[in-house]
Structure formats: structure tokens, C-alpha cells
Write a structure and sequence with these properties.
The chain has helices at 12-24, 42-54, 69-75, 89-97, 113-124, 134-146, and strands at 2-7, 28-31, 60-65, 83-85, 103-107. The protein is an alpha/beta fold. The longest helix has 13 residues, at 12-24.
Length: 150
């Protein structure tokens, strides 16, 4: 599984920890910034990561800002993206299993490193299960297609 990851300056420290987690668990990844000492508008980094995931160059994405809210809103503007802000292990699992989320977002100011590590691994170890969720995800995709280009 190939992961695209990015953050603004508020998520930098947490992103650095998540990069170690990805490496230690054998995930291939690319870091799209921000980088040490760099200030970046979170919508710019969210768009960059979302476009990479939407292009299918990456299987999934992780984006971190202060709360995870702004990057989730922004990433979901990109056609084909289903970004879920996660704050607990169950939601991280369900993001993948029920919603086929291709990006998760987290807050660098709202959670600690150990907690973010648990959420990341719960998400990455989970796969879309289809079943009762399939028609719901299909409908999400239809709505996404409906508003593409408007």
C-alpha cells in the first residue's frame, strides 16, 4: 500500500511521528510537506495530497492540520476523494470498512502521538467490506460525479 501524507505547520510534529510509524510497518509513502520550518496554508497541502490520491498514484492519504477539520473539508472538494476526520479507533476502522475512505485526517493539536499511531494503523489495516455499505458508497460516488465540474 502506497501512502501520500502531508500537513501544515500545526501538524508537522505529528506527521514526523506518523512517518516513522509508516516506515516501521513497511508502508511505502511520499511526504508532500510541510517541511521543517515551513509555513503553508492547509488548503494547499490538502489539495496536493488529495489530487495525488485521486490520481490513483497512491492508495490512501493522511493529512494533518491543527484539528483535522479544515484539511478534511478541503480534501473532500477533490473529485473522487472520501476524506474522513478520525478521532477514535472505531471511526478510523469504519472510515475504511464502511465508507471506503481514501484519506484520513487528524489534528496535530488535538491528539498525542500514541493515539495518532493507533488511528493510523487501525485505518491502514482495514479494508472496505462492501455488504450493506456498498450501496451507500456507490451513492456517495454518484453524488460526487453529479457535482463534478459545477
Amino acid at each position: 500500500m502506497k501512502i501520500a501524507i502531508g500537513c501544515d505547520e500545526m501538524g508537522y510534529e505529528l506527521k514526523q511521528h506518523i512517518l516513522t510509524v509508516l516506515k516501521d510497518n513497511g508502508y511505502e509513502y511520499e511526504d508532500f510537506g510541510s517541511f521543517e520550518g515551513e509555513t503553508i496554508l492547509y488548503p494547499n497541502i490538502a489539495e496536493k495530497v488529495a489530487k495525488e490520491v485521486a490520481s490513483k498514484k497512491f492508495d490512501r492519504g493522511i493529512i494533518i492540520c491543527g484539528t483535522g477539520i479544515g484539511v478534511a473539508i478541503t480534501a473532500n472538494k477533490v473529485h473522487g476523494i472520501r476524506a474522513a476526520q478520525v478521532a477514535d479507533v472505531y471511526s478510523a476502522e469504519r472510515a475504511a470498512k464502511s465508507n471506503d475512505a481514501n484519506i484520513i485526517t487528524m489534528g496535530g493539536l488535538t491528539m498525542g502521538k500514541a493515539h495518532a499511531e493507533m488511528l493510523t494503523l487501525a485505518y491502514l489495516h482495514s479494508e472496505f467490506q462492501g455488504g450493506r455499505s456498498l450501496p451507500k458508497v456507490d451513492r456517495m460516488k454518484e453524488i460526487d460525479d453529479q457535482y463534478r465540474g459545477e
